[in-house]
Write a structure and sequence with these properties.
154 residues; mainly alpha; 6 helices; globular
Length: 154
């Protein structure tokens, strides 16, 4: 194992722990609401492991999560189909929109699944999606730019 690879791996794991830890504390130790969605865990891989990737850039992280979550909610509330049909259509539309709008963030591709299976309310867009994404991006910018001295955003 290369020394640089070990360091990159350790730092990505550590800062993922810190970022998701803060979201978890806000979710479970305050009455402010839910700040976590499963796809945020996947976002950590890109943000801290590969911050130079176009898929890890703040615009992609924020709008990728936002668009796919909105797609999931629209399909959940407006399209009267069984989930086994609704979910793949919503994921396809969400992925297509991210690519069309040039805000692709692969972890966000799972958001319509989370939204539909969880039967979330409209508030889900505000918290956890918008607020959680903003918190993640604040941490990502501070950690990557100021602590790790990486050019982020690129």
């Amino acid at each position: 194992m290369e020394k640089n690879n070990f360091k990159k791996s350790f730092l990505a794991a550590f800062f993922s722990f810190i970022t998701i830890g803060v979201l978890t504390l806000l979710t479970y130790k305050t009455n402010l609401g839910v700040f976590l969605i499963a796809s945020f865990g996947s976002s950590m891989v890109l943000i801290y492991g590969y911050p130079e990737s176009p898929f890890a850039q703040p615009r992609n992280v924020f709008f990728g999560h936002l668009i796919t979550s909105i797609v999931g909610i629209l399909f959940l509330y407006l399209v009267p189909l069984p989930n086994y049909i609704l979910i793949p259509i919503a994921v396809g539309v969400g992925v297509g929109l991210m690519i069309l709008l040039n805000v692709t963030h692969p972890p966000a591709g799972g958001n319509p699944i989370i939204v539909i299976i969880g039967s979330v309310s409209l508030d889900y867009i505000i918290n956890p999606v918008i607020v959680g994404s903003v918190i993640i991006l604040i941490f990502a910018i501070i950690i990557n730019k100021l602590i790790l001295k990486k050019q982020y955003p690129k």
